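Try it yourself: sequence plus iron/sulfur cluster, in.
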Amino acid sequence: MMHYTGPTFRPPYEQNSLLLQVTSGCSHNACTFCSMYDEVPFRVSPIEEVEHDLAFVGRGRTLFKRVFLVNGDAFCLSYDRLMEIAELVHRYLPRVESIGGYASIGNVLAKSEQQLRELTQAGFADFNIGLESGLDDVLAFMNKGYTLAQAREALARLNAAGMPFNLNIITAAAGRGRCLEHAAANAAIVNEADPTLVFVSPLHVDPGARLEQLVADGAFEECTLGDYITEEIEFLKRLDVTDCVFFGLHVSNPVRVSGILPRDKDYLVGELEFGMTRFPQWQLDSVPAKGAEGRMVD
Ligand code: SF4
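Structure, out:
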């Protein structure tokens, strides 16, 4: 049996990856909108546990080509521990070509450019980095634990080290009335970072998260469904990246699109604009009801 503690999350495009637990919970566990790991104390898995799980999987006729380290920010592990894990992955699963996981900006900043280069050579690639926003005040409000300047430094370091990465952007995270400003700021930092993939999904206020109370108190005004889509369109139009997957297929995306940039930009903008016409005006003008995620415009 594999070790999994509490809820385990992965991005939708990691569905074919082996989920290998190397930590439990999240070392930050303080983002304003997130309650995913509230019930799970942060813990680093003993290396014996990791080796046990890899040996368990390795005994089968496994075809895994990629390992996705879980949980919330597995890249918080030290350089030494990550190298140890890479050695075990390649020993027990020799077909594995790359190792990823969730990473925060802080996790990246804790490693030198040389360490990142060596981690890349050991097979680490395409970590999913929850950048979320290109606006300093939004990062502070969401309690992400870093500034925009630090994010730019971390992403530049990854590029200098040759480690490809994915970026998460949360549309509507700046709140009502700021969608165009947020779209422009997000596009600016994504263009500068030039990731392999950009994962766009709307702000989701987790039940029990601090943001839930802030919304109830009127300290944060959520965007409407129309704002979500408008911001995504504006963000997409402003993107100027070299070879990047645009991934907007999360269950929370009101109109689901995915393609390769820059090739598919006009097509994706058209799909979003068309998708928006499929909603009645009253719905576009409303804040999506909780639990309404998953409706898809077909
Ligand atoms: S959003 Fe990510 S980094 Fe923030 S608390 Fe949740 S799991 Fe941790």
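One thing you can check immediately is this: Confidence is low (pLDDT under 50) at residues 292-298.
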